[in-house]
Specification:
Serine Threonine Protein Phosphatase 5, Tetratricopeptide repeat, 2 domains, 149 residues, single chain, 9 helices, mainly alpha
């Protein structure tokens, strides 16, 4: 299958952002968004790069746009939950994690992220419950939750 520039660019940009090449990543995503501004996943990808670079307000703005483009998708709510958590806005984070799980009750990462929010709020029983739900849905998360920090 031949991949178009528009499908490859966000992956390259996200990888560039993970390697610390933020300007390259953002430039590539800006170009893609300029060519096709209705593609929700382009904003989700760019938000990931913004967040990795500590630009949480810009990440939230892109996730807001992604949600406006298609409010039925759980991923941008989950990702915005994670950014809100990084900002310490735990009530906003909890609302977004809850919305992600309303849209996709089997979204293991959203349970895991909500578990982090509950933990940070001091609600340990709720945190443990969500971590257990995440692990039951996706055993790979067990390794992620117990990774060395």
């Amino acid at each position: 299958m031949i991949q178009t520039t528009s499908s490859v660019t966000p992956r390259v940009a996200t990888l560039s952002g993970q390697k610390g090449q933020f300007d390259l990543a953002i430039g590539a995503l800006n170009k893609s968004i300029g060519l096709d501004p209705k593609q929700q996943w382009l904003y989700i990808s760019r938000s990931t790069v913004w967040n990795a670079n500590g630009e949480t307000d810009r990440a939230i703005t892109d996730l807001d746009t992604a949600i406006k483009l298609d409010p039925t998708q759980a991923v941008p709510y989950n990702n915005r939950c994670w950014v809100w958590t990084a900002k310490g806005e735990l009530d906003s984070a909890l609302a977004d994690c809850n919305r992600a799980l309303e849209l996709d009750a089997n979204f293991a990462v959203a349970y895991s992220n909500r578990g982090v929010v509950w933990f940070q709020k001091g609600e340990l029983d709720s945190a443990l419950s969500d971590f257990n739900k995440a692990i039951r849905i996706d055993l790979i998360l067990l390794g992620w939750l117990h990774r060395p920090r």
